[in-house]
Write a structure and sequence with these properties.
296 residues; 33% strand
Length: 296
Amino acid sequence: FFIKVGTKYYQQVTSDEINVADFGILPDGNDQTARLNKLLQRIRKTGSVLSFGVGTFKFDGQIVIPNNGFQTGTDAFTQNSITIKGAGGWHSGQQQQLNPVMGGTIFKLSFQAANYYDAKIVTRGLGRFTLRDLNVYSTVAADTTPLFMTTMTTVHIVGCAFRGVKPATGKPNIDAIVLGGTRKAINGVETGYDDPNFAFQGYGSVIERCYFDYVDKVVYMRSYANHIVFRDNFVEKTCGTNKVNGGCIEIDGSLDITNSQSGDFTTGVQILNNYINGLGYYYQVILRKATRCLVM
């Protein structure tokens, strides 16, 4: 079977778990973006688990988790379940000084975007995506392109490390995880749902047992990022913000005021049992237009 994407055809791959090395994705110092995105296209109709071995994988471009296009019945883009897993997110809890090399599987990401919502790894389909046991690392000094962003997708992020570059002065500018956008679509109309800044995040998303080093916002939950669990994570003392009154974890249900939308919010978020060495922040947790949230 072949899958058509634009003007290109990709042979479909069907397997419960795939070793990416079998498709030429290797920790050899060369850019692996095109190969990984091609493989993701080949599994998008069935879903699968992509398994990465030990090593450092270089990605100069944006990693895009594919969806299956707009579905009128769901008023959204649908997406099959895809997992990207590695051989370990980190090996030591003290990374920033004596042990700068971390993890069994490292993704070195250098993609830069003009828009905040074009993160280094993006997923924008109504489905499920799992990221686990990886070290996700920006190689760019003074980086402002987030490491990971999703709209619509229910994400499970487990046992990963998210790292920026140590700034020459001040605090880091890169955000680690962004959930949801700020623009609201119109039911039954495709325009809006393909907006990368679409205001919705898949319910039931869980971020747990992750490590954060040299990042600004650890997680930024925006409009309709509802029913999210953020638990048992470790935020290193190297994290912090240059923004006045900025926070480590921010929940902001405000929609884009340029679209003349109001009265919306984020609800049902649980933030539990996290270690936040919050010396670099004005606030550890910020809630704006958020309801029924549990922080403990």
